[in-house]
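hey so i finally got around to running the thing on that chain from the lab meeting. sorry it took forever, my laptop kept dying and i had to restart like 3 times. anyway pasting the input first so we r on the same page abt which one it is
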Amino acid sequence: MSSKRIVLATLCLHLVFMVFWVVGLLFSLGDSILHPTFSRVLFYGAACTSVSWLFLFGWIVDQVASRNKPVAVLLIVFFLGLSALGSFVFIFVFSLFAPKDIWYEDGRHMVTSGEATTRCFYVYEKHGLTNRIKDKYMISPSLDVNSARWMFYDRLGVMIAQSDNALFHGDAEPSKVYNLYITDSIALRKYQRETTLLYKSLIQKEGRYLVSGEITYQAEHPSPSYTFEYDTKTHAVVTGGDDGRQARPIVLSEAANDSVIAAILRCPDGVSTAEDTSYGEGQFCIRLEVNGRLLLDIYGSDICKLPRDFLQLIRLLAEGSEQGRNILKKDRETFFPS
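ok and heres what got predicted. didnt touch it at all, straight out
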């Protein structure tokens, strides 16, 4: 076979790859996508065969140069500019539509990486060569996708990702963390109690907890605030305040640490005044996160209506600091009952 035929065959193959890949992009504009493995074959096939355009450009320039060399020079400049523009467009398209990495796949589900510019991932329901997008989720700060084990509970309407805790990278024995994602809100409402018991049983296996929080009293100007991080392994509360300076860590006793862990396990997850307005109006703004998952987020609420376990957790982690204790004294009856 002559070199000309090889180039033409490669160019035709490139066009076939491009047509099918564009069709795949049109699929992704809706709620379905091509299977990532098939999409990857098309994408990299089109990229590898794109070199055939250079041979085509060279053949055109050679034919023109035999008749008019100045025009051939202009054609070379034009093709160089066209190649540079094509490379830029390719890089731009690659950053948006590059084939996604498959993190998990079974007979019904698939989990893939998200866009390179955001920390997210996609969950799909499989349908042959195409997959229907079920939802897009943000990656929790504690989720280590390299060690993640994905567990689907379709009847309960949730998916749980078990992984090493990314907040404790570098530790010889990293603790496990369990992140829950909702896949079917209707099923979740139906089996809310069963799902809660399942999730709580898994959380108890985490073994180590990093609690971060901020407490603000907004009735005064400037509003005093108290920020902290607590590690149940080191028993150390690292504090900070309005001036941004870190104070010397406060070390809790073994008994206090056990009380903190017990309160964490008893507290419900995701309590937020954005979704629950039953806490009334008040002067406190409090946010608590445990291992990267939201535990409490209230704004301008009456904290005396919070569950007792939340109040105990806040008091244990704030009363050791003078700054935290002063803020808690704004509502002495709730935090320091006589």
